[in-house]
Structures are given as structure tokens and as C-alpha cells.
Write a structure and sequence with these properties.
Among the domains are: 141 residues, ATPase, nucleotide binding domain (Nucleotidyltransferase, domain 5), CATH 3.30.420.40; 62 residues, no CATH class. 44% of the residues lie in helices and 21% in strands. The protein has a 5-stranded mixed β-sheet. It has a 5-stranded mixed β-sheet with strand order 8-7-6-9-10.
Amino acid sequence: MHSPSDKALHGHAAAYPFYLGIDGGGSKTLAVIVDAEGQERGRGQAGSSNYSAVGLDRAIQSIHSAVTQAAEAADCSLPLYGAWLGLAGIDRPSDQATLLPHLRSLANTIHLSNDADLLLSALDNAVGVALIAGTGSIALGRDASGSFARAGGWGYVLGDEGSGYDLGRQALQVAARAADGRGPATALLEGILRYWHLDKPDDIIGKVYPDNDKASIAQLSTCVFTAARAGDSLANEIVQKAANELALAALTVGNALNFPDRRIPLALGGGLLLHEEDYRAQVLHSIRLHGATGQVASVEQPALSAARAMISLTHANDAAL
């Protein structure tokens, strides 16, 4: 937790306490402001705040633009009482050192983390394991002592097991084998052709190469889930393997940390875990086969969750001073 001692140019914090949560990803930055009761009072949105991708100036501009919109909607002034900023590309202490000087004007107490960490805000005392499966995948966690661990997040070449891209890539490979006759027939082949509006299997090559559009391939996870529900054995194998990989990532992080009675609190995020109920159930079942779960939270709005978490975290920080 970082508590800037210098006051912002805007003057002292507003008399009525407001708290900020920011979810800053590769495509957009969302800022949400809540009051002391946790009620949302305003939000704003701007472009990417991943400074490793767009540069420091653009990232800072996006953050301040989103916060300014949210503050205007909330009818409050800066600095706020507390802010949790979860930004893509924040992976090392040097990243924090680079960004923090440009963020001190936002709030008296600032918590800066990777955007994946925002999911922990939905758990009691922000302690537990966050498991994310969208286009990519990652698991990370923190225990009550402050120890941190992570697994996955290696990107689509080295990992991202259990992600949308992983499911889509495996579906394409199975479909290609089926088209050649090197592998068994599968509904995935017809499903992919229909989803991408292609006429024949050879057309898949032109769709995949040379762009290798990760988002487009990840969207094929929809075909995998549809085929699995219809009873396609190869699709079911892909889904089960992917669920097991996500469970392994969560358990690896949980086992590296210290939780009472070895019960792991879980925060789930990413499109696959939030919107594919069967898949979420398979992942949780696989986790419970090998370990106990505690609190389980599905985090639909990380920025809002982070803003609300800052109410108690700011009070705890003040009490420790």
C-alpha cells in the first residue's frame, strides 16, 4: 500500500470520503468512484493504460481522463480518500516506481497493482486466489501475511492453458486432423466453418494465417462449448483438459500460500469463467477434488469491487499509522 504524503494540486481531499477503483487493460481504462457506503457515484472510460504497450504519457493520460470523467459524474474533487489502480503491465517494482509519481494527485492512499489483482478485492480482506480465464489465463494470490504467488500468465505461445485461445487452438487442430482423415470426425469442423462463414476446410488456413488474430481464435471457444454440450467426445476432452489446467493453476498458487485449514478463497474472472456456467462448474469441481475451497466470488466489475474494497483498506491503513 502506498500512501503519498504530498497533497495534490487540487488541494485537500473532499470533506466527504470517496473511493476510486480503476481497471486498466490493454484496450480500455475504466474508473469507478463510490461513496463511503460503497454506492457507485460516477464512472469514466478512456483508452489503454498499459504503459508497456502504449507508452507512459498515453497511459497516464488515459488514467487521468477516466478519473476526471468519473469525478465529474460523482460531483467530487481530487484527491479522493483512497484508490486501487489495477493496470495491465504492472509486474515489477520498477513498474510501480515509474507510474506512482504520476498518480499521487488521485488519492491520499493509493494501492497500485496488476489489473489481475483487482479480483482479490472481491474476497474478504483481499486475501485468496484469483483465477482468470478470458482470451488468456492466469492465477495469482495473496495470503494474510502478504505473501504473493502466481502461476500461468505466460502468454499464448508458452501457456494460457484453459483460456479461450487455448480452447480455440485445440479445436482448430482437431478440426484440421478430422478434415484430413488423420483424426476422428468431430462436430468442431462444421462448427468452425459455420462460425467463421467459411465454405470448405481449406479456407481455415486463410482465416488463421498470417494474422494469427488471438481474439478471433479465442472466440472459437464458443464452438467448443456448443459441441461439448451436444455430446461431441473430442470437444468434451478439450473442455475437461482445459478445466483441469485452470484448476491446477489455482491449486498451485493456493498451495504456495498459507490459508487456514487449507481452504482457498477464490475470485473468478474473465469471460469464460463468468459466462460459461458449465465450464465454471467443471473448474470448481476439479479444484475441489484436490483441495478445499473457501469463499467463491465471481467478479463481474473489478473496478467497482476495487473501489469498495478501498473503503476498508484505507481505514486499516489509517489505523496502522
